[in-house]
Amino acid sequence: MKDILSSLHAIRRPGLLMRAARIGARDYHRNTHLARLIGTMPPAASGAALMQLIELEADINECRKSERAGYSPARHVDVLIAMLGEARLLQQARETALSLR
User: Does the global pTM surpass 0.70?
Assistant: First the structure.
């Protein structure tokens, strides 16, 4: 199975979307953002949340590519911000686990 962070790094999106997401990810707050995007209580693990966000973002990106009227660049950036934030949290958790060994 492909590592979730490797999957995330393989995603290619327009530079402007990613630049906006990187800026927004600095102020990422898990409980606030995930509740708004996923609509339920956030999963306890960052990996599970990240998988949900990757699926959501893929659907949104398909809307962007097919130029559907319902596409929202702001929502797309919000989801990308959450993806970057969850990836950061997951990476920090992995680094902490490795340092405890």
Answer: yes
